[in-house]
Amino acid sequence: MSSPKELLYTRTHEWVKVEGDVATIGVTDHAQSELGDITYLELPDLGGEVNGGEPFGVVESVKAASDVYSPIDGEVLERNEDAIAAPDVVNSSPYEGAWLIKVKLANPAQVEALLTPEQYDELLESAGSH
Amino acid sequence: MSSDASTEPVVKTPLYDRHVALGARIIPFAGWMMPVQYSGIINEHKTVRTAAGLFDLGHMGQVDVTGPDACSFLQFITTNDVSTIEPLHAHYSLLPNEQGGVIDDIIIYRRAENDGYMVCINASNRHKDVNWMHRWRAERPDLDVTVEDISDKTGMIAIQGPNAAAITQRISDRDLSGVDYFSWVEATVGGVKANTARTGYTGEDGFEFYTAIDEIGTLWDALMESGANEGLLPIGLGARDTLRLESRMPLYGNELADDINPLEAGLGWAVKLDKGPFVGCEPIAAMKSTGAPRKTVGFKLTERAGSPRSHFEVQVGGRSVGFVTSGAMSPTLNENIGLALVEKDVAGNGKPLEIIIRDKPVAAVQIKTPFYKRDR
């Protein structure tokens, strides 16, 4: 199953949808599969800052708590309150129902460092994803 | 993933290929490649509570203890009273160390009259336990007893859940309805000779089966087939952990350790100080008379937060009072629950705790355990 074509990706298994100067970030299907049943989301407050390469939140599953990373710098415009209330949406709909935050891009050039769907799928292949 | 301190090569149970074929996620556990989940931990957990689940327990260890002084030997190295186990019955016990801490928790099965005992031990402690038992056998040359590690010859699986008995009975050569909790029989199940014990680690009805190792696959297949129309699913270690936690069953390494006294762990009921001397009885008796300084309590979070997990700090009013031994989002209760080992002055149902999760105190309240009890 190939990753959605309209999105970009990170090596740490987040997806990014860029629309103008707003980036929407979530975790990929591979990530939710690895994590298992998601039980809790910790996301930043509106107006908070995210920094490229740093964790902006936590996705908890039954077995572990995992950091979620932002590939880009920016200000949090929105966060998905529905997903916070029902975190299992990350498992059932990682690319749509489970967008996590929307960020106003502080540095749009950072988007160029993101992986294309093909590059991300290749990354999964070579890592022997199951 | 969890770090494994064992230097053993990582091995597979006879059922490994089946787990892979069933789509299991495999992880190393106590030196074994084990399924942590198949269809998902929450789904598997709920299936055991409402239908039935099948567990590969090939990683567990088994030790034969035989000879005229088998009972006396076990009496000397365990906390519970072995002399009260009737033939074809079993009990839960602890292997204490000389400081009154715990080396392992075990189930001791007594065979038919004079045929000795089989002790089931944790995978993570197998070699530690066997070495310990050999050491004490050598220190008691007055006892005529033989201790043999039979783990490599013994296959083990469990079926647990409200439908477990029916699924098993359907393919059993004998009536199992008389096999009460903590008793066992030699039965033929799915054509396989199996010591069939009404024991388990989930809080549900069910059986644990012990077979010759080369027959365990046949038994697994027969039970999977028998249970196919009753919702039987294979269950991984992830759900095994959440199930036992809800039932307040200890996990060695969490609630039990070398430096945790049985009385602090809430397992005084498995300690019979009046049975005669045993390894570690003096420090345990001393703690009994002065009172245990720490207590293992159940709690639930009272605010929305991540889950409590093993070794998270516990505070009361900003003061550190202990640590979480086990914690998880309970699939049955849909609440974050846990057990914590805390100073006795803060312990008590209804009293507050703060669980430190990612450096922030999260409000919790102590509650009665077990967190879940099945309708009998």
Description:
The complex is a heterodimer of chains A (130) and B (376). Chain A is an alpha+beta fold. Chain A has one domain: OB fold (Dihydrolipoamide Acetyltransferase, E2P) (Beta Barrel). Chain A contains four helices and nine strands, in the order βββαβββββααβα. Chain A has a six-stranded antiparallel sheet. In chain A, strand 6 (54-61) and strand 7 form a beta hairpin. The N and C termini of chain A lie close together (11 Å). Chain B has a six-stranded mixed sheet with strand order 11-12-13-10-4-14, sandwiched between helices. Chain B has helices at residues 16-21, 41-50, 70-77, 126-139, 164-170, 216-226, 237-246, 281-290, and strands at residues 11-12, 25-29, 32-37, 52-56, 61-66, 90-96, 102-110, 117-121, 146-149, 154-160, 184-189, 192-197, 206-212, 232-235, 294-301, 313-316, 319-330, 335-343, 352-357, 360-367. Chain B starts with 10 loop residues before the first strand and ends in a 9-residue tail after the last strand. With 376 residues, chain B is of the alpha+beta class.
